[in-house]
């Protein structure tokens, strides 16, 4: 029997799920309960920030809190005149300081709900909110590198506790209808284990095609994990299964011919993709309007530094291990000071746990366990004491695990 679990709220709180499991198997409610290590951001840890002078921001924020079951205490209010593309750093710092004072201590990340401002001086608004405004996050001369993010390829789940930062993303939209569709795509993605395709497009634009040198390695590393296709050309057309789309050009044609699966991530490496309006280059917002659930772009000239743009392999790796869109995207950018993250923060298409229970044992099927050593423990009560009954090693991209035990009680899997 296959029984699925959508771990949207907390993989440490599975009592209701295992009650369902027990009933489905015709067993008592005490038969089998198990905890897995939490590997992702949950709704209770996300703050939603609205601008009280922006009616669209307020409407998006209120809808998102309700749609995602986010505690109302996590809906935080700031106030400034909307519509400016670039907020002066001094004004922004005052807004941020007030926001920090009203942010609950358990909050690990922010979602803002306006399309403008998208820039603070030389930084993106999402990076400025995350780190505070500091020119060290910007190029001090043309084509210079910038400060590196401690969140790059981060493996924890509580960045504020561990690193004193709260990664931020914008639920960006020009209308409530667009925002609502974006949010609904994110929710629809959760736990679906999509069988879509990652398209890595190597274009003829030599300056913006710098990520292509790693495409073949990425495809090799994703073998039997995510279907990955490397194509040469300037345009992708007529595909119905787009889950990832990474390319490099100033403008992307053919978006109207594509079908993006819920939870899809797509971006184009170019200078001003994060300039959401008024740019001569394509705005990252076009990806969301075409059906993607997350995108990225820079708000000032970054040059073609690989570290200033998402690393496709890291986006795919973190996302496919059950993490949220916000987490996977942020962990893929080494120098994010000039980059704007947009999309539905909590989309988590690969966050799912399935059990096959039979007379011969129990098989756990999930992508949530990353490579490493784990301990399986058992107790007759939910509070312990727990006794170790098995150690097992998870290989890279392993999805199925045969577990020892089977006697009634409570089980716990912990990373060693």
How would you describe this structure to a colleague?
This is TIGR03790 family protein. InterPro entries: CHP03790. It comes from Candidatus Thiodiazotropha endoloripes. The structure is a single chain. By secondary structure, the chain is α/β, with parallel strands linked by helices. It has two domains: about 1-40 and about 350-415, no CATH class; about 45-345, no CATH class. It has ten helices and 21 strands. It has helices at about 15-25, 55-70, 90-100, 125-130, 160-165, 175-190, 215-220, 285-290, 310-320, 325-330; strands at about 1-5, 30-35, 45-50, 75-80, 85, 110, 120, 125, 170, 195-200, 225-230, 240-245, 260-270, 295-300, 340-345, 350-360, 360-365, 370-380, 385-395, 400-405, 410-415. Strands 1-16-17-20 form a four-stranded antiparallel beta sheet, with no helix packed on it. A four-stranded mixed beta sheet has the order 2-21-18-19. Strand 3 (about 45-50), helix 2 (about 55-70) and strand 4 form a beta-alpha-beta unit. Helix 2 (about 55-70) runs parallel beside helix 6 (about 175-190). It is globular, with a radius of gyration of 22 Å.
The proportion of strand residues reads: 25-35%
Helix tally? 10
What structural category characterises the helix and strand content? alpha/beta
Estimate percent helicity: 10-25%
What oligomeric arrangement do these chains adopt? single chain
The strand line-up of the biggest sheet is 1-16-17-20
Structural domains: how many: 2
For the termini, the CA-CA separation is 30 Å
Q: What's the story with the biggest beta sheet?
A: 4 strands, antiparallel
């Amino acid at each position: 029997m296959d029984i699925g679990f959508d771990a949207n709220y907390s993989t440490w709180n599975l009592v209701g799920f295992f009650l369902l499991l027990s009933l489905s198997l015709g067993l008592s409610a005490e038969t089998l309960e198990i905890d897995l290590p939490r590997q992702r951001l949950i709704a209770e840890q996300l703050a939603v920030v609205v601008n009280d002078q922006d009616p669209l921001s307020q409407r998006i924020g209120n809808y998102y809190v309700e749609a995602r079951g986010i505690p109302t205490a996590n809906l935080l209010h700031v106030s400034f005149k909307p519509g400016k593309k670039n907020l002066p750093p001094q004004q922004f710092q005052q807004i941020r300081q007030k926001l920090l004072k009203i942010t609950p201590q358990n909050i690990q990340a922010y979602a803002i709900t306006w399309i403008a401002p998208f820039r603070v001086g030389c930084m993106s608004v999402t990076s400025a909110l995350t780190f505070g405004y500091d020119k060290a996050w910007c190029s001090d001369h043309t084509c210079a590198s910038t400060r590196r993010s401690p969140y790059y390829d981060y493996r924890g789940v509580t960045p504020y506790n561990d690193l004193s930062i709260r990664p931020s993303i914008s639920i960006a939209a020009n209308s409530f209808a667009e925002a609502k569709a974006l949010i609904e795509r994110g929710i629809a993605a959760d736990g679906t284990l999509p069988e879509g395709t990652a398209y890595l497009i190597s274009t003829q634009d030599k300056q913006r095609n710098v990520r292509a040198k790693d495409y073949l390695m990425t495809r090799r590393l994703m073998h039997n994990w995510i279907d990955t296709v490397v194509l040469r050309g300037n345009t992708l057309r007529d595909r119905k299964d787009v889950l990832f789309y990474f390319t490099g050009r100033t403008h992307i044609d053919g978006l109207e011919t594509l079908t993006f699966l819920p939870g899809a991530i797509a971006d184009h490496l170019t200078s001003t993709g994060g300039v959401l309006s008024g740019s001569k280059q394509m705005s990252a917002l076009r990806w969301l309007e075409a059906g993607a659930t997350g995108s990225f772009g820079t708000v000032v000239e970054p040059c073609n530094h690989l570290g200033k743009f998402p690393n496709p392999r890291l986006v795919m790796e973190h996302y496919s291990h059950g993490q949220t869109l916000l987490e996977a995207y942020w962990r893929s950018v080494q120098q994010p000071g000039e980059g704007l993250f947009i999309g539905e923060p909590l989309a988590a298409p690969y966050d799912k746990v399935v059990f096959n229970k039979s007379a011969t044992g129990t098989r756990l099927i999930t992508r949530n366990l990353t490579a490493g050593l784990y301990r399986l423990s058992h107790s007759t009560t939910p509070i312990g004491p727990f006794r170790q009954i098995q150690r097992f090693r998870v290989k890279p991209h392993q999805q199925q695990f045969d577990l020892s035990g089977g006697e009634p009680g409570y089980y716990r899997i912990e990373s060693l």
